Amino acid sequence: MTIASNPIRATLLAIAAAGALAAPVWADDRDDGPSGPSVNPSGFSMVEREARTQGLRIEEIEMDDGVYEVEGRDGKGREVELKIHPQTGKVVSREVDDDRFGD
């Protein structure tokens, strides 16, 4: 039996694929080696909460150089990058790229 001949299976597969694509990307691109800060799974939820508080639609979260970097878009569609301290959860820097259309 193929997926096309089973509409329920095809629908469930489409829902699962859409859910996977809609979730933010979580990455750990640490350059700091084994002696650097460890990634705390509860830290991701703290970072996600702070980014959403800042009005961000999250596209990617990664740990780099000892801070969480969150990439996303604000309510105006601008690209925003937040750097968030891993222990305090506070935003340490915010960069906004207003060049939405690559002009």
Structure commentary:
The protein is an alpha+beta fold. The protein has a single domain, classed as Nuclear Transport Factor 2, Chain: A, CATH 3.10.450.40. The protein has 2 helices and 5 strands; from the N terminus they run H-E-H-E-E-E-E. A 5-stranded mixed β-sheet has the order 1-2-3-4-5, with helices on one face. The relative contact order is 0.14. About 9% of the residues have low confidence.
The count of DSSP E runs of length 2 or more, i.e. the number of strands, is 5
Gyration radius over CA = 18 Å
Rounded to the nearest angstrom, the distance between the terminal CA atoms is 50 Å
Envelope shape: elongated
Rounded average pLDDT = 75
CATH topology: Nuclear Transport Factor 2, Chain: A
Q: Provide the spatial order of strands within the biggest beta sheet.
A: 1-2-3-4-5
Low-pLDDT parts are 28-36
For the largest beta-sheet, the strand count, sense and barrel status come to: 5 strands, mixed
Number of domains: 1
Q: Bin the helical content.
A: 25-40%
Known CATH architecture? Roll
CATH class: Alpha Beta
What's the short version?
With 103 residues, the protein is α+β, with helices and mostly antiparallel strands. It contains two helices and five strands.
How is the secondary structure organized here?
Layout: H1 7-22, E1 25-28, H2 41-53, E2 57-64, E3 67-73, E4 79-84, E5 91-97
Parallel strand pairs: 1-2
Antiparallel strand pairs: 2-3, 3-4, 4-5
